[in-house]
Amino acid sequence: MAKERTRESEPDRAVITAAARKLRKFDPHRFRALVGLDGFIDQIIDVVDKRSSADKYTRVETIGALGERISRAAGLSSNLELVIKQVKLGGNGPIMANALITGGMRVTYLGLVGKGKDAIHPVFQDMAAKCEACYSLADPSVTLALEFRDGKLMQGLHQTLRECTYDRILEVVGLEKLREIWRTSHLIALTNWTMLPHQTDIWKRLLIDMKGIKPPEGAYLFIDLADPEKRETKELGEALKILKRFRGSHRVIFGVNQKESMEVSVALKLGLDAEAIEDNARKIRAALDLDAVVVHPTKSAACATEKDSAAIDGPFCANPKLTTGAGDNFNAGFCVGLLAGLEPRESLTAGVAASGFYVRNARSPTAAELSTFLDAWSKRHADANF
User: Fold this and answer.
1) Quick check: helix, strand or coil at residue 79?
2) Are 69 and 78 in contact (CB under 8 A)?
């Protein structure tokens, strides 16, 4: 039996109800977003444990179980059968953009969604058709997403990511059009720093070429990393120090999951405790001098602003239909909350609700569905089985 949430850790029903009420009054179509810069074809995969027939199998349920299986093969050999359950659009940018579009915002996408004779790749065509504009820099890369009950292993084929350069952006979009998009966007989300080797240079050149442009009042710039373990610590630290320079024109939000927060801790020499997510959000925000920092593990989330900090437990799903993209849906929900004028804890609530809906339904929620989900959560806010 699942353990009941404690009064200290459960989100306050009043906060959930307030978030739902405010989001119902929010008109997302009034807001524009520019999202980029990656693009992946995601193959969602089960690793087979036992196969009983041509059509039936049981999967390896946990990453630990897969690790044990691999360890047993050391010095010998082993065969792992992979079953592709779904092929879908992927990448931090496209998934976040798709979530914002589904939620009703007007989105321009800039990233790796197809190149050449056939232009937009089929997995991105529906998203591209719903965008105000979609600019493709190169073909998408590929992710083999091995999903388990306790997490996922993302294996990438990343050759095309090196084609995402600032010069290529100018070639495809044009400087004046880019400046116009920058000026009219209420939210700019530049995602997946880790896998895009030229993104630091893109940030630096945007600071030069977008200087003097006045975006809509209260506009946000959202940045995420996407698991920077493979990048050099010094390189990460140098990139992070650039972010506060965007505060001259935008409110800068930096989002990380729990693992990424520890890698940021090393780069900034903060010595953080992985479990103290609210305290970590405060310390990272202070070290980087940003408007807000968000830390989102799978079961909870925390954020810190210059004025305050907050943390909540989310509506955790023990048996999700889809986990790849859950963090990007959290980011979309959190940013929508900010644009809707929600308080930090309410914005966190919107984020974990968007993620919670996504993992249960294998798709992003509409604005109405997000509010309805919040209503249902409010009624069962003390139920750890929700």
Assistant:
1) coil
2) yes
